[in-house]
Amino acid sequence: MATHHSAEKRARQNVTRNIRNASLRSGIKTRIKTVLEAVTAKDKEEAAKSLQIAAPAIARAAARGAFHKKTASRRISRLAKKVNALH
Questions:
Q1: Is the dihedral of CA 50, 55, 28, 38 positive or negative?
Q2: Residue 83 has what DSSP assignment?
Q3: Is 26 exposed, middle or buried (0-12, 13-18, 19+ CB in 10 A)?
Q4: 16/85 Cα distance (integer angstroms)
Q5: How many domains does the structure of the chain reveal?
Q6: Mean pLDDT (the chain, rounded)
Q7: Which residues constitute the domain of residue 68?
Q8: pLDDT band at residue 80 using 50, 70 and 90 as cut-offs
Q9: Main-chain dihedrals φ then ψ at residue 51, nearest 5 degrees
Q10: pLDDT band for position 3 (50/70/90)?
Q11: Which of 53, 23, 5, 13 has its CA nearest to residue 79?
């Protein structure tokens, strides 16, 4: 357990950030799942609409530190590739 004041504060910050990041990642998983379900159903319009919602959300999560920016870029790219393959 932390004994210095700064270490105790850092531990509190880590708990708060962990909760915030877990919530962001969970929301991103839900949005990705929505896109993938539309792709599986071969619904072009729904997949494109879901991607327009998911891509900025993934980018925002990366900007806030829940993901690395290259991880976010890779996920957006893979989703876009699947959606574009429907057209």
A1: positive
A2: H
A3: exposed
A4: 40
A5: 1
A6: 95
A7: 5-86
A8: very high
A9: -65, -40
A10: confident
A11: 53
